[in-house]
Amino acid sequence: MQFIDLQAQYTRIAEKVDARIMSAVRSGRFILGPEVQELETALARFSGSSRALGCANGTDALVLPLMAWGLRPGDAVFCPSFTFTATAEVVPWLGATPVFVDIDPATYNMDPAHLEASIEMVKAKGELNPRVVIAVDLFGQPANYPQIADIAKRHGLKLIADSAQGFGCTLEGKHPSHWSDVTTTSFFPAKPLGCYGDGGAVLTDDADLAEIMESLAVHGKAMPRDIEKRAFEHDPKYFNVRIGMNSRLDTIQAAVLLEKLAIFPDEIAARNRIAERYNTHLEKHVDSVPQVIAGGVSVWAQYTIEHSRRDALSAHLKSRGIPTAVYYPIPIHAQEPYAKYPSGPGGLPVTENKADRVISLPMHPYLDEAAQDTIITAIREFQ
Question: N or C end of the chain: smaller count of CB under 10 Å?
């Protein structure tokens, strides 16, 4: 049994995705070929954003807006600790300070009340300048953006929706980009919308910000507005106006993603059917089944339950040939490189509690009822 069955998906789209890949190969336009722009347009349309920028991976997607906003030493960025390290990792890259915020016990996403308390704490101490909030759409469901966006706006902070696990999720029928200044995502193969390698994207309605991020992603290249300001004796592609990086989405990966995006809505619906069936059959047999925020639709990057005897349950399921995973057994703030950075007032008790209890079960759009019944039966038989 597969934890995530990517081959089942490939079987469904093999002919189309193979044709897309070979078209890109035959064109020879391996870097920034037409498929990249086609995908960016499709991603923007899908998410309700004005602009989308493909990049090399989801981590670069997070750092690009921070670079564009001029994040520097002395600035504070508020983010959860119960997530993959990339969310916080990009902040020290620029010399700034991550401030860790606790999570809501029901959704595992950022707790708005603790976010506000954390911002007030930082302001009261006066040692750091609050600049940005990074909310994470953990396990595929949207964070509480109406509340988080209101807090960020009142305190004059930028808001990033880290939707690496949650691209495609909605709240009140709207994508996270409705509330955030920037939405980022990852196309790592295991993500709900994943490619066949690394890839990522940044989405925004801010045209000026998008232009700066595009420049930064290609070595600080000159953009049209920069070129208009001066005459060039040489090819303007060798004119660099910013210190940038090299973060481009490969043409072949864009080609793959175009075909995957075409079936993505159907896969989201399938994931929700499977999650609902899990909930129905497991709610009386585990400590907690997943709860989605009111008005929210998850893309179910993971289906995560809680159990007081997690490790024993995992061993039991393994003995039945059922794979499981634990996200995230050691929160970021508890890891050595991040131990020096502050947490909000009262620490992160919910984060630390959940890290000891969560376990994720197989979840993908092609999990059939027979396989799901095997998993459900094994859990119900666990003593």
Answer: C
